[in-house]
Structures are given as C-alpha cells and as structure tokens.
Amino acid sequence: MTELNHDLPDTDSYNPAASSLAGHVDPAVMAELLSIRSSIDNIDATLVYLLAERFKATQKVGFLKAAHRLPAGDPGRETAQIARLRRLAEDAQLDPAFAEKFLNFIIGEVIRHHEAIAEDHNAAGGTSNGTASPTAPLTA
Ligand SMILES: O=C(O)C(=O)C[C@]1(C(=O)O)C=C[C@@H](O)C=C1
C-alpha cells in the first residue's frame, strides 16, 4: 500500500517561488534569481529521471549477477568508469574529484541493491528468475 507523507508538499503543490529571501531582496534581483532557479528545477527533474533509468539498468545487472552467483562489485570496471568520468568532467569544466565522489556514491548504492537482490535470490533457493520484486532495492 502506498503511504502518503502529509508533512511534505507533493509535486503538484510545488512552489518554484518558495524562498526564505522573499521580501528581503530587491524585486529585480529576485526575478533574476527565480529565472535561473527555473533552469535548476528542470535540471534537477532531468537528474531524477536519468538516475531512475540508471537504477533500472543496474537492477537488471543485479538480477543477472545473482542468477549466476557473480560478485556484486566489479572493481576493474569501476576503475575504468572513474577514469573515464574524470576525463569527461575535465572536458565539461566540472571538478573531477566531485565527479568521482558522485559516481562512487551511486555505485555504493548499486552494490547495496545488488546484495539485497542476491540475498532474496538465495533465500528463494536460488530459483528466483528476476521477475519478482526484490525487497526494496530501488529505494534509498
Ligand atoms: O556493471 C556492473 O557490473 C555493475 O554492477 C554496475 C556498476 C555501476 O553502477 O555502474 C555497479 C557496481 C560495479 O562495481 C560496477 C558497475
């Protein structure tokens, strides 16, 4: 059953103009800030959808690894991913150290999900074929 958290506004009631600065800043400055924030909101929404797609893909990897009893982590793959992402970050004028930290954070979460999938798989006697939902790997 879906639980609703009534303490938090849902996305329909999102107020893009919400700010602790309202009333304390020159209206022209506030207008410019809100305009820039509208781009930030679009980027954040895109990031959420991108991350959801990435986790859908890694969930498939998790099922595959569990079915074939492969280890959750693949350090060789991670080394290559990090080196590539650091190069991309430099090209994009993003701090490579931040890019590495961000990727490591995501991969850490993916490995946690893989381990949960493997546990479910083993608890089912190694017979689950990946069609059943694992315990809750898509929630942090
Ligand atoms: O490609 C894999 O083998 C994965 O499990 C995915 C992934 C990733 O999130 O990119 C996660 C863990 C591994 O250590 C390497 C990569």
TrEMBL record:
GO molecular function: chorismate mutase activity
Any one GO biological process: salicylic acid biosynthetic process
Name of the protein this chain belongs to: Chorismate mutase
Record-annotated Chorismate mutase domain positions: 27-118
EC category name: isomerase
UniProtKB keywords: Isomerase
Organism of this sequence: Arthrobacter sp. K5
Ranges where the record places region Disordered: 121-140
EC number: 5.4.99.5
